[in-house]
Design a protein that fits this description.
Shape: globular
Low-confidence stretches: 1-34
Number of helices: 10
CATH class: Alpha Beta
Radius of gyration: 19 Å
Structural class: alpha/beta
Largest sheet: 9 strands, mixed
CATH superfamily: Alpha/Beta hydrolase fold, catalytic domain
CATH architecture: 3-Layer(aba) Sandwich
Distance between the termini: 23 Å
Strand order of the largest sheet: 1-2-3-5-4-6-7-8-9
Mean pLDDT: 88
Order of helices and strands: HEEEEHHEHHEHEHHEHEH
Strand content: 15-25%
Number of domains: 1
Number of strands: 9
CATH topology: Rossmann fold
Amino acid sequence: MNEKCGHCGNQIYRNVREKTNQPSTFSLFLTDMYTETSIGVMVETVELPSDALERKVKVNFYLPTNIAEPDSLGLLLINDGQDIEAMGFDKMIGYLLQTETIRPLLCVGIHCGEDRINEYGMALAPDFKGRGAKAGAYQRFILEELLPYIYGHFNVRSFRERAFAGFSLGALSALDIVWNHPEVFTRAGVFSGSLWWRSKDKNDKEYNQNRDRLMHRQIREGNYHEGLKFFFQCGELDEQEDRNRNGVIDSIDDTIDVMRELLAKGYLEGRDMAYLQLVDGKHEVSSWAKALPVFLKWGWRKPKD
């Protein structure tokens, strides 16, 4: 999917500055809105009221301050926005934009709520403990509330491409939404994804990983959608669990198996999929901070003249 931004970068930037002081009709209901500028990027923070989630959602918008080619502006949503805030994402993305390493990209960090364990998950079904029961509501928030707000607030008609990424359980959520809405998103970033998500406890005598791992089953029973691309990252120290005792931790096994399901659907490694394994990678923000620039360069590297 190759879409175009309908307004020049300077106009988008002016719209943001104006709306900070004079909110749009929707923005009148925001309890808080403020902006700050880092090198190459302006950060705007809002608390967005959500009917779907019945709470306010804190969101950080990272907008390039100088968009030389507005037609190339992309959109990236990121779950667990509090984590990218903690890793200094404004400086990371600002550097990549200032050095023209990547194409212009509006990044949206969506902070999790107190009920993260239920809002993140798969819309298909909760896991065997009933976790993820609000995943459908979270999906509605993304599609019916957040995306329309972005288009209206930034006065943008369309983006070159739209992507969704996340960490751990937020990665499962992002992949689930991308997979189920290829008409909206074209890329997924999965960092230490909770791809173990299953309908039965692994210690249940009837547990079958081919049947009971829900993301794997969903992909296997789904359809190929041309244009979808996937970036996966795992750390060799993500965990210690090795349920099948093959010498490989479960998080890596589950990720590789998802990639195999995608391969079986027709997606190709290299063209449609990338995989990054960090030898010293752990299930924590500092490891994801190392992987995130690799993902950004993979998805939005600016071609050399």
